[in-house]
Amino acid sequence: MSLMVVVQNTLAHAWRLLLEQVDNGQFAICGEEEDTITERLYMILDDLYTNEPDTIQGFSLFQLPVREGNLANRAGDKRDNQPDLAFRPLRGLLDTRSSAMAAIFVECKPIDSKHPVGSTYCKAGISRFVREDYAWAVDRAIMLGYVRNICPLPEGLAYVLNHDAGRKAYHVEEGLRHLGKTPAGDDVYGSVHRRGASTSPCPDESSPITLHHLWLRPVAPCEPTRCHVR
User: Fold this and answer.
1) How far apart are the C-alpha atoms of 76 and 107, rounded to whole Å?
2) Mind listing the pLDDT tens digit for each residue in 68-125?
3) Is residue 113 within 8 Å of residue 225, measured between CB atoms?
4) Which among 1, 128, 175, 215 is least surrounded, fewest beta carbons within 10 Å?
5) Phi and psi (nearest 5°) for 166?
6) Are the C-beta atoms of 106 and 145 separated by less than 8 Å?
7) How far is CA 101 from the centre of its chain?
8) How far apart are CA 108 and CA 113, in angstroms?
9) pTM, full prediction
10) What is the three-class DSSP state of 66?
C-alpha cells in the first residue's frame, strides 16, 4: 500500500468520525468555515494517531500529522506558507535530504455556491502547488474538497481543468484519471501539472507534480446549488 493511499484512507476514515459528531449534534459542517472544519478533522486525526493508530492500515508509518506548519516556497522569498495538513513518513521510509520537505501535503478547500471550484479550489488551491509554494520537493500531494453543494467528481473539476484557460492557468500535463476508491467508497482522481512560472510545455528544472483529488461530503448536501459540469 502506497503512502498516498494510507493518507487518503486516513482522511476518509476521519471524515466518517466527523460525520458521527455531526449526527450527534456536536458539529455542523454546513455552517462552519474551512479552517474550523480542518481543525476538527485534525483533532480527530490526533486522537486516532494517539489512541488507535492501527485502525487504518499504514497510519503508524507516519509521524503525527502537522496542521499549518510554516514552510518556505521553492524560491525562498515566501517563508510562511502554511499547507493545511502535512503527513511526514517516519525516518527512513523516503529517500530525502530534507525531512521537513519530505511529506504528503494536503490542501483543503470548501466547495459550495460561495466557494466555486474555479475560484476557490483551483485558483486558491491547485495554483499553490503549481507555482511551487507547496510540496516543491516532492512529486505528489493531495487536494481535499469539502463538498457542501451538489458537485460531482470528476465532472465538477474537469469543467475547469479541461478548458483551454484552465489547462493553461494550471499547467495541466495530464487530465483527470481515476486512481481508485477509499475503503469508505470515495473516488480519488489524479491530475498532473507542470510547475513553475512558465506556461510553456518545455521542461525546466522542476519536475511535474501529481495531485490526488479527494472530495468528501456530508450525509446530505448543505445547499441545492450545483457546480458547472459538461
Assistant:
1) 20
2) 878 888 877 888 888 899 999 987 677 666 677 789 999 999 999 999 999 999 999 9
3) yes
4) 1
5) -70, -40
6) no
7) 16
8) 16
9) 0.93
10) strand
